[in-house]
Amino acid sequence: MKSIVRVFAVLALIAGCEAAAQDNAVPKEALQLIDSLHFRSGKIDVDAAHAALNLNDEFRFLDAADAQKVLSQLWGNPPDREVLGMLVPVAAPLSDPKKSWAVVITYKNEGYVSDKDAAGIDYDAMLKEMQEGTAEANAERKRLGYPEVQLVGWATKPHYDASTNKLYWAKELAFDGGRAHALNYDIRVLGRGGYLSLNAVAGMNQLHQIESEMQKVLALTEFDAGQRYGDFNASTDKVAAYGIAALVAGAIAAKAGLFAKLFVLLLAFKKFAIVGFIAVAAAVRKFFARGNSR
């Protein structure tokens, strides 16, 4: 649930920050918060995920506490205890609203995700299902007084690298009334007991830059020895209840019975968080419902 809220809360913030970005104005309080952050470099051990980030001089790391400051205090997201940290590009400092972007890091220990279905996934068909679900949800958003959201398409079509067990894709989204489209770039690094999520959000005008930078991020991330995908032991290890396709469509939200409960909980969150959740929840539910019927 929180991963969905996290992504769309930041997405909607892009539209809300357009005017500030044009003026290149950063409030004094924001600058003070940024100055209080502790950026780290070099090898970063992400103990909770049994993984490490081998950073070069192009990226810096913020631990969970500082990442929360950026997400909640600087960007206005609800608190999220699942966040393990954040990667910030040196060339795109948080103090520059025109260039800033970051990669939010989380981990799901829901078991080994089988990649047997990876080669046979029809991502064009999946996109159509997700778009239809998103469009159908707009009526409910409009009834509740929220702007419509459109899943424009793949900004980068999903690709699974079987040699490194890493999956990546990007979506282009448009919010009703917003001049700029939003870019949501996702990476999933599969491990023995779960997967590491690296989510970057920016404007579509940054697509080529983010696409290039996220390929660098792919190379920086690896599970510890003994915790890698190839270390899976079928006799002892837990297997996730979904595969590669569900990671792209939204496995966590697709679990049976969660939709009604999550919507009630999200009513307490900010307006923009609800907007995004309805879109993804409807799209994911539609995709899996049709898949089951087939």
Strand sequence of the main sheet, in spatial order?
3-4-5-9-8-7-6
Structural class: alpha+beta
Low-confidence stretches: 1-22, 251-294
Number of domains: 1
Radius of gyration: 18 Å
Q: DSSP strand (E) fraction? A: 15-25%
Percent helix: 25-40%
What best-fitting shape do the alpha-carbon axes yield?
Answer: globular
What's the tally of helices? 9
Order of SSEs: HHHEEEHEEHEEEEHEHHH
- Kindly state the mean pLDDT as a whole number? 79
The profile of the biggest β sheet is: 7 strands, antiparallel
End-to-end separation: 27 Å
Number of strands: 10
Quaternary: single chain
Question: What's the layout of helices and strands?
Answer:
Elements: H1 2-16, H2 18-23, H3 28-35, E1 43-46, E2 51-54, E3 59-63, H4 64-74, E4 85-89, E5 103-108, H5 123-143, E6 149-161, E7 166-175, E8 182-190, E9 195-203, H6 207-220, E10 221-223, H7 244-249, H8 258-266, H9 271-293
Helix pairs in contact: 1-9, 5-9
